[in-house]
Amino acid sequence: MKLIKQYKKIVLAVAIMALVSCSHEDQPTETALDFTQPVKTDLDKWIDQNYLDPYNINVQYEWNQNVVEANRFLYPPAIEKVQPALEIIKKIWIDSYSTIGGKDFVKILAPRDFVLVGGVNVNPDDVSNTLGLAEGGKRISLFQVDYVDKKSRASVTRFIHTIQHEYVHILNQTKTFDVESWAKITPNDYSSNPFSITDAAAQRLGFISAYARSNYTEDFAETAAIILLMSKAEYDAFYASITVPAAVTALKKKEALVVQYYRDAFNIDFYALRDEAQKNTTDVLNN
Amino acid sequence: MKTKNIFKYLMLLFLALQLNSCVSTEAEQKFDETPTERLNKQKSELNDLLLSPAEGWKAVYYTDDSQLGGFTHLFKFLPNGRVDMASDFDADTDIHNSQYEVQLGSTVSVVFTTKNKIHLLSDSNNSPLAAGKGFLGDFQFLYYGQENGDLVFRTNRTVKEVRFVKATAQDWADLKKNTVSNANMTGDINSPLFRILETKDGGTVKKYEFNFNSVTRFGLAAPLEDGNAETLKAAVAYTPTGITIKPAVVVGTQSLTDFVYNPTDKSFVATGTNGATAAIKFTNAPPRLTEDYKIFLEGGPQITIGYIAANLSTAATNSPYAKSVLDKVNATLAANQKLARVQIAFNDPLNGNYIAYTFNGGKATIYHFFTTTEDAVNKTIILTDDGWLGGTVASRAFLKVLDDEITNPKGLYLKKESFTIFYTNVIYTYASAATPFRLTNYRF
C-alpha cells in the first residue's frame, strides 16, 4: 500500500512535468492569411440590400468550383444577366410568399444560398437538362441564368418554375406532406426514366408533367410549382385539355393535398398565393 | 502479475515516454518562409504579373490537342478585378469585359469568375464531341510559375498546360484576321470537295488525304502512298496569316508548324529551309481514285442509277454546292412541281445512254441522251450530249444549270460507296471533275 502511495506521488510529479515540459514554444503571432474583403461592386451592394440583409440569403454568381459539379461543363453568368434574374425571383417568388405567408416567411424558411450558373446543364443522357438543384434545403442552384428574357412570359415562367419547384422541396424538408395519401393516387405509374414519355402523355396518367413521374416528392413539388405558374383561367383550361377522366380526378386529388399541405403546415391560402404570383409575374413582364 | 510489478512497468513506460516527449521540433528548413508565406507571395506575384504588361497576355488555348484545335484568347487584366477579353472562337472578336480573381486553393490560380469569351469552350449546350462536354474547356488555371517571361498554367479540371505569352498591340489589331483564316480553311460551298496534305523534302514527296473538321478545328491526314503508314493528326489554330498546327509536320529533319495562306490557289503552305515544304490544298479530284466508272462505259452491262429526291435529298454525300444547284432548278418550277428523280441509264439496249429528269406535280419527263468516253488518266467518265427528248429548247433551259454539271467536259468521278440509305440498293456517288458537285444515287 505504501508502495502504491509512493508511486502515486511519482505519477503526479511526472504528470506535472509532462504538462510544463514543452511550454517554451513560440506563441502564435498575427495570421499570415489574407482576410481582406474584396471590394464590393454595385451588383454586390444591390444583392446585399435585396437578398442578404432582408432575407439572409447569400447569392453566389461569381464562379466557385466548390459549389458546382466538376464533371459538368458549366460557366458563370454574364454580369449583366445577374440582377435581372434576381429581380424576377425577388418579385415572383419572395414577394408572393411574403405577402401571403407573412413578412418574414421567406426569411425564416429559405435556402441560405443561391448559386447562379449562366449556361445550360446538359445531362449525360443528352436529352434532358437540369434546370435547378436544391441541396439539403440550404442551397439552390439555378442554371441558364444567361438565357432569361425578362420580356418573354415563357422564359420568365420557365425560370421561375425552377425556383418554385426547388422551394417546395425546401418546404417539404421542413414539414413533410401527406405521403401516405399521395402514394395512393397514382401508385403504379412512377418511373426511374420519367422523360420516356411526353408531358401530355404523363398528364393522361394523372401527372402534371413528365418529370413528376420521378417519385412522390418530385410529383408533389411539380404539382405545387406548376399550379403556381398558371392563372386560374389557364389552370381551368389545362384541366379541360385532359381527356382522360381518371387523370383529371387524380390531378384534382393531388391539388387538394397541396392546398391542404400549405394550409395545415404554413397557414397559407394556396390559391391566394397563386393569384399573387400571377399578379407579380405580370408586373415583371410589364416593367 | 502482482500489482507492484504492474506499477513498476507502468513507471518504466512513463519514464520512457517522458524521455521521448521533448524531442526537438527543429526540423531542417528547406525554405526560408513558411508554406503560407510562400503561397501568399506566389499569389501577389501572379497578381502583379497579370497586371504588368501594357498590352496584356495572349493564350492559344488547346483544350485537348488530341481531338480539338486551339482557340486564341487575348486578356488585359485591369486593377479592379475586371478583365478585357477577346477571342477567335467565333466571328465576334470584339473586346468584352468581365471579372476575374486570383484565388488561393490547393495552389494559386486565376479564375475568370463571370462570363466572357473563354467560357464558350465550357458550354455543355454546345458539344461537338461527347454530349454535355462542350469543347472540354476550363477557365480556372493553376499557376505553375514563369518560363522565359511566359506564365505557365495548368487547367484545373483537365490538367492541360496553358501558356500566357505577352501580347502586342498587333495581336489585338490582328485578331479579326484569324476569322478570315478560319473562313479560308473552312471553305464554302464553292470550295473543292477534297483536301490533300503534301510534303516535299527535295525530291521526296508524300501525299495524305486530309479530312478537316472546322468545328473542332481538328484534322486527320491519312497517307496515300503504300509505303507510308503514318496517319497524322493536326490540331489547328488560326493566325492572321494562316494556321498553325500541332504537332508539327515532320519533313525530312525539319518540323513545320506555321502555314501561310496563298490566296491564288487557296492553299496553306509551310516552308522550311532547303526547299522543304508542307502544303494543304483543296482539290476536286478525290485523293483516292477508283475504277468503279469502267463498267458504265460503252459495251458494258445495262445499269441504271438514280438520285431520288424523296429518299436521298438529305444524304451527307450530296455536296452543299449540288444542293444549291438542285434548289435553283426547283425554284424555277411551279409551286406544286419539284424535281423527283435524276435517273441515268447506261447501255440500255433499246435507247442507249440517257439522263431522265422526272418531276412531281404532273410535269412530263425530259430525256437527255449522251455517249460515254473515259479519261483513263484522271479516271473519269465523260458524258457527251447526243440530243434531247421532251419539251423545247426554251422549255428545257431551267435544267441547264444541273445538266451542265453532269455532262461537264472534264467528266465525273463515279464511286461505289460502302453504305446504304433507307433501301438495301448499292449507293453510287458521282462528283464533277470541274466543280464541287457531288450527288448520291441508288443503283437499280
**Gyration radius from CA atoms of chain B, angstroms:** 33 Å
Number of strands of chain A: 6
Net shape of chain A: extended
Distance between the termini of chain B: 103 Å
Largest interface: A-B, 41 and 43 residues
Approximate strand percentage of chain B: 35-45%
| The top level CATH class name of chain A | Alpha Beta
Question: Taking all residues together, what is the mean pLDDT of chain B?
Answer: 92
Secondary-structure-based class of chain A equals alpha/beta
Supply the number of structural domains of chain B: 3
Description:
- The complex is a heterodimer of chains A (287) and B (444).
- Chain A has 287 residues and is α/β, with parallel strands linked by helices.
- Chain A has one domain (42-286): Collagenase (Catalytic Domain) (3-Layer(aba) Sandwich), CATH 3.40.390.
- Helices cover 55% and strands 7% of the residues of chain A.
- Chain A has 11 helices and 6 strands.
- Chain A has helices spanning 2-21, 42-55, 79-101, 105-108, 153-174, 179-183, 199-204, 216-229, 232-241, 245-266, 270-286, and strands at residues 58-60, 113-116, 121-122, 129-130, 132-135, 139-142.
- In chain A, the strands form 2 sheets. In chain A, strands 1-2-6-5 form a 4-stranded mixed β-sheet, with helices on one face. In chain A, strands 3-4 form a two-stranded antiparallel ribbon.
- Chain A is extended and about 95 Å long.
- The mean pLDDT of chain A is 89.
- Chain B is α+β, with helices and mostly antiparallel strands.
- Chain B has 3 domains: 35-167; 181-283, Beta Barrel (Porin), CATH 2.40.160; 292-443, no CATH class.
- In chain B, 17% of the residues lie in helices and 40% in strands.
- Chain B has helices spanning 3-20, 35-51, 169-186, 309-312, 320-332, 400-406, and strands spanning 57-62, 70-77, 82-87, 96-104, 108-112, 140-147, 150-155, 161-166, 194-201, 204-213, 218-223, 232-238, 242-251, 254-262, 267-271, 277-283, 303-308, 338-348, 352-360, 366-375, 380-389, 412-416, 427-432, 438-443.
- The longest helix of chain B is centred in the first third of the chain and has 18 residues, at 3-20.
- In chain B, 34% of the residues are buried.
- The mean pLDDT of chain B is 92.
- Classes of the chains: A alpha/beta (287), B alpha+beta (444).
- The interface between A and B is large, with 41 and 43 residues.
